[in-house]
Amino acid sequence: MSVEDKYAVALGVISVLLLVAGTLGARVLSQASPRIIRIVWPIVAVVTLGVFGTFVFIARLNAH
Fold it and tell me: pTM of the full predicted structure?
């Protein structure tokens, strides 16, 4: 298996983990007030972007 294949599989795993975490988080936040959701939503979005960005950065460093 090539390095690109390994990173593709790892990206799929990270995507599934984030999907599960998002689903569980949505269940918890479903009963929260709109104020709490407005505070938490952008934080979660930035963390998700950071996870994918970090992964891509590490993958690019190691792929060459």
Answer: 0.69
Q: Taking Cα atoms as reference points, which of 20, 38, 16 lies closest to residue 29? A: 38
Total domains in the chain come to: 1
Phi then psi dihedrals of residue 60, to 5 deg: -65, -35
Given CA atoms 57, 37, 13, 5 in this order, what sign does their dihedral have?
Answer: negative
Per-residue confidence in pLDDT tens, the chain, 64 aa: 888 888 888 888 988 998 999 899 889 888 889 998 899 989 989 998 998 899 888 888 887 6
What range defines the domain where residue 37 resides?
3-63
